[in-house]
Amino acid sequence: MEVGRLPISAALKGKLVSAGYTSLSILSSLSPSHLARDLNISENEALDILKYAPHDGRIDTSSGHHVINGAQTAWDMLHEEELLTRITTSSVDIDNILGGGISCGEVTEIGGVPGIGKTQLGIQLAVNVQLPIHCGGLGGKAIYIDTEGSFMVERVLQIAEACRDGMSANNTISQNVHAGQIGMQPKDFLENILYFRVCSYTEQIALINYLDKFISEHRDVKIVVIDSITFHFRQDFEDMALRTRLLSGMALKLMKLAKKFCLAVILLNQVTTKYAEGSFQLTLALGDSWSHACTNRIILYWNGNERYAYIDKSPSLRSASAPYAVTTRGIRNCVSNCKRIKLM
Questions:
Q1: What's the rounded Cα separation, in Å, for the pair 320 and 309?
Q2: Which of 140, 246, 295, 330 is 20 to 30 A from residue 90's alpha carbon, by CA?
């Protein structure tokens, strides 16, 4: 059963969803004090919520249906998906083909050639997740895992300043909200991005194993960006079977993280060449087996001087493409005179 159908107030439901608690099965291991702290509510209110959570594996027959506690019906899953929030990419065209933005609770892979804007999009999402919900964000924090050393804090500052200016210029927002959430300064955006630098595949695996505990202690984290998932697995690997097992285990942990904490996981990927139909073609790295590790796959590519995003794989979105631009202000809609420009 999802929290949206609980017989509690709308305010409490909103706090549960915002904190990542979308299913009762997630609440089963929490204490009242833990839940009260996460939601900033009283322990009595937390107790009222937890009394609906399953606490063992016995058969629940109270509703007349023999369903093992922890299981979900397809109807419940549908309602959970309807409650999932999305993070804007700052490009209306890309948001439109994605159904409103990057979805939480899912793993999204974004790949493309060097210079196409993968890191730019990852940074943009790490900033945008901090926006209030009505501005396309989740009011949360971001984890940014840098495997290549391509994270540029000066670029983050540029995008944060543009984000602040865009919020201040939004005339549809009330004065009360303007005085509060729009009071965020670029420094605040930067402080809400938790940065990890990893220098080997063993460090990368160890960090991903640690994320469950870390996010449990930082429930305001709403997105994890790995830039890139590929780098340390494209070198120093003679045993390809071992590489496949390590990647599969890592992918499984990331999928569980996305679902458990209702956050977005973004995996940036590189490209490689593949011989097919008598010629070499560009394809995303890590092989065919890796393509099953993500829920959604977005390929970024050049069409002349214009950048395009293409939905290559998704269980809920149709294949479609949209132009976009990488500007000094970040990811934006493409304009007709868009050229390849130097950003810094």
A1: 8
A2: 295
At 330, list the tokens.
């970040």
Does this model's pTM top 0.85? My answer is: no
pLDDT (0 to 100) of residue 216: 93
Q: For 9-46, give the DSSP string.
A: -HHHHHHHHHTT--BHHHHTT--HHHHHHHHT--HHHH
* Residue position matching structure tokens 């402080």: 191
pLDDT at 64: 46
Amino acid at 263: L
Query: At residue 225, what is the residue type?
Result: V
Give residue-wise pLDDT tens across range 139-190. 999 999 999 999 999 999 999 999 988 877 664 444 444 434 457 899 999 9
3-state secondary structure 67-115: EECCCCCHHHHHHHHHHCCEECCCCHHHHHHCCCCEECCCEEEEEECCC
